[in-house]
Amino acid sequence: MLEDRTPKGALDRVLTVEVMRVTERAAVSAARLRGRGDERAADQAAVDAMRRELNRLNIEGIVVIGEGERDEAPMLYIGEAVGTGAGQRVDIALDPLEGTTLCAKDMPNSLATLALAKGGSLLNAPDVYMEKIAIGPGYPPGIVDLDMPAAEAIRKLAAAKGVPMEEITACILDRPRHAELIQAVRETGAAIRLIGDGDVAGVIHTTDPIETGIDIYMGTGGAPEGVLAAAALRCIGGQMQGRLILKTEEHKARAERMGISDYDKVYTHEEMARGDVYFSATGVTDGNLLKGVRFYPGYITTETIVMRSSTGTVRTIRARHTDFSKFILD
What we know:
Layout: H1 15-31, H2 39-54, E1 60-65, E2 81-82, E3 89-98, H3 100-104, E4 111-118, E5 129-135, H4 150-161, E6 169-173, H5 179-187, E7 191-195, H6 199-205, H7 209-212, E8 216-222, H8 223-236, E9 239-245, H9 249-257, E10 267-268, H10 269-272, E11 277-283, E12 294-296, E13 299-308, E14 313-321
Parallel strand pairs: 1-3, 6-7, 6-8
Antiparallel strand pairs: 1-2, 3-4, 4-11, 5-8, 5-9, 9-10, 11-13, 12-13, 13-14
């Protein structure tokens, strides 16, 4: 009989495969609507598939990071119970369709994403915006900081990497609110990769700059995406800081209901995703990180990255699916 080497207090390692199946199903459902211009329909398809698959897992799951509250999109809502109720109690952070616009326009880097950790381990944050800064692994702690001017962060990162600032590339969401940030980065001589959507992928891209060409992620995006990205960095390595943007009394009241009293707290990725963490992302459209879903006569292919923090394992799995009943709503 093989010895069970799962670390004490860790997640059941069988869940590695199970979380992959969840994101695969969501990705395939969304990919059927790729390029159709209907963001809501694609998001709804991904939500329905992800909810269905989560409810088949032998877990006592609570969605602590959901999607759709801010944009009134279809939701797997914060506080929703999922799973059969048997098995471990777990926190779940998810974005069934990261990059709804990307999927609707069949543009790169749309993903189905999910993170899972033991109950009480993921930051329970409202669906508001979050300031973020992230870099990949291999740098001393504290090289960049959320409160640094952009130019200082670029300068320090370049020095740590041993290159001139002109060889640094920052990834920033292409939004009017980032006009000053973009100008400040460009004044350093650094390059900028502007993305229209998909900042989970943007953060993950910093972990492999040779492949992606991205060294640092900067700017403001969704808090749910921030927690998902933090979960990925816990597994693959890197540094990240985030701060919730709670501008209104309603935002603050929602944060307080989730146990957040320090409105200006800067969270590290270790604080946003603690303990043993699983992260899974399946490509919906082609991107730097993953290939999108492919439909062939008689079968479907998917590509998924699955990570675990306690072991540092990162698996990229290309799967071929011939049982179409697994992808039909029941």
